DNA sequence: CAGTTTATTGTAATTAAACTACATAGGTCT
DNA sequence: AGACCTATGTAGTTTAATTACAATAAACTG
């Protein structure tokens, strides 16, 4: 936990002098990390050992250690203790908050993702006869994005927004086909059905969805980024970004697995776009 | 800049002993921040002043200051100095690297984004008669995502992947219409033309693209996230995520501007999805 | 309400860490 | 090979941090 938040949380339990120290630090943490214990003590109008005791109370080894923790807290650019957007936020605040909460989500997604599942997913994808990407609602654009990435790999891919087309696609699938499904909640009935149909037809189903959800249970492989809380104003934001980064990861794993020759091919695809672009020197 | 990257960048300019220090720190930065100058000197098998000189060479005030910088670097969760995926990376490495480079990109995007432009964009969007979202290639799914967000706001929106449809849409636009364009490079000829057409027909053009690009010059408002380098295996990854977060920011600004009643409406939209979902207790 | 106890804070001494000045070793260029 | 310069280490100095202890303030008890 961020040590600034911790101070805020525990401030009531502090003694009078310790509270003085806490206030000085909260008020200007930047100054705090660049001060010696003596100067900080003077600013807070307390003695040096008081500052030291304050540090220990926050489970740090001492003043220098405390400064380290504080520096880490500041580095994340989180002067906002509460990262949720609220009514009174101006553009500056909500912009910062959304960026920060997105970054925080990615961080926790990274920590929670099961690498062995990533590896298995890459295995399956590299060997796929055909890959289909499906998502509904907000996840449709995630599927679209996946299509775009894997399309460049010169593998048969498709992606339908239409639920009927999705069903038909799964009906016609066979062993070696991969169906990749995106859903934040993992509770959309239609998508769970799609997964069932796909598996009945021997396709491999890879889900990017939340752990232990109905959809997750239908998948052969499930990638479940743990995104603690969404900033959402009634729609998933951060979790969807996490899904996209997972696609990036899989695409990267894919290209690495395919080896250097394959990457030369990719370069050709990219170069083929050149005639449609303005020159750099413009 | 992250001090670890800085070390890596400057490592060639270091002397033999200083390089020893650099290697020890890169190898295990966590250990470094919890060591005294004496222990670190011993680990690197150099003298204390060498460590001190090393710190100063990196433009820090001294060893404690250096540790502070290092701690801040680590806090961002970037133990990988070299964030580019390379051949020999296993799943664990490339997963971590991609997540981290995405987070780093978001961080720099956040710092570089012009808040006044964000505010103007929100102004324009809230007053729009109609909003069109266009992108080509990889940016098509970004436009799709934007559509999905703003669609819920009960504003007339559209989004075409087809370049001809896009052109026709812009031909028919008039004052009060907003055209929002997504492009990483800002050099795709067809999209620049779209911007020209839209402006000729009195639409307001908002671009999410790189600074000073041909496209940027055609826009009324331009949001240019500064994404330093892409991890790309020949396609934009991080920059596209930054674009999506910008959409989140604009959507959030939009709802905040519209006030609380409007948010009740949003909740209704969300609740309308319930019958199509499995229950939480499943 | 006085006396006792306990928690809180500060003073002074100690220890540890960081830094500076200087000396020596190693390398380079003429 | 000798002079010079850079790089590195040693020892001493300064500064910062910590500890032990004393004093004060607050709280509690008879």
Strand/helix succession of chain A: HHHHHHHHEHEHEHEHEHH
User: CATH H level of the largest domain in chain A: which superfamily?
Assistant: Glucose-6-phosphate isomerase like protein, domain 1
Count, helices of chain A: 14
Distance between the termini of chain A: 48 Å
3D shape of chain A = elongated
Structural class of chain A: alpha/beta
Largest sheet data of chain A:
5 strands, parallel
- The whole-number mean of residue pLDDT values of chain A reads 84
Count of beta strands of chain A? 5
Q: Specify the CATH architecture of the largest domain in chain A.
A: 3-Layer(aba) Sandwich
CATH topology of the largest domain in chain A: Rossmann fold
Key features of this structure:
homodimer, 282 residues, alpha/beta, Arc Repressor Mutant, subunit A, Rossmann fold, 2 domains, five-stranded parallel beta sheet, 57% helix, DNA-binding
């Amino acid at each position: 936990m961020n040590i600034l938040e911790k101070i805020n949380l525990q401030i009531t339990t502090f003694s009078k002098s310790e509270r003085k120290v806490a206030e000085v630090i909260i008020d200007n943490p930047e100054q705090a990390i660049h001060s010696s214990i003596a100067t900080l003590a003077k600013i807070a109008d307390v003695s040096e050992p008081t500052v030291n005791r304050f540090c220990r109370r926050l489970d740090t080894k001492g003043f220098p250690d405390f400064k380290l923790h504080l520096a880490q807290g500041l580095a994340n650019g989180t002067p906002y203790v509460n990262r949720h957007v609220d009514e009174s936020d101006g553009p500056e605040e909500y912009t910062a908050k959304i960026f920060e909460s997105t970054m925080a989500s990615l961080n926790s997604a990274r920590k929670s993702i099961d690498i062995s599942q990533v590896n298995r997913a890459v295995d399956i994808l590299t060997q796929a006869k055909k890959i289909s990407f499906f998502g509904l609602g907000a996840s449709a654009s995630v599927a679209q994005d996946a299509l775009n990435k894997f399309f460049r790999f010169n593998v048969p891919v498709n992606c339908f927004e239409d639920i009927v087309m999705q069903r038909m696609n799964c009906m016609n699938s066979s062993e070696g086909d991969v169906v990749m499904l995106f859903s934040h909640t993992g509770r959309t009935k239609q998508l769970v059905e799609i997964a069932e149909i796909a598996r009945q037809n021997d396709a491999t189903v890879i889900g990017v969805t939340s752990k232990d959800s109905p959809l997750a249970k239908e998948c052969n492989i499930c990638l479940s980024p743990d995104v603690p809380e969404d900033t959402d104003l009634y729609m998933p934001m951060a979790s969807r970004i996490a899904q996209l980064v997972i696609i990036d990861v899989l695409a990267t794993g894919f290209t690495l697995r395919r080896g250097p020759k394959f990457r030369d091919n990719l370069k050709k695809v990219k170069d083929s776009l050149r005639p449609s672009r303005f020159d750099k020197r413009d």
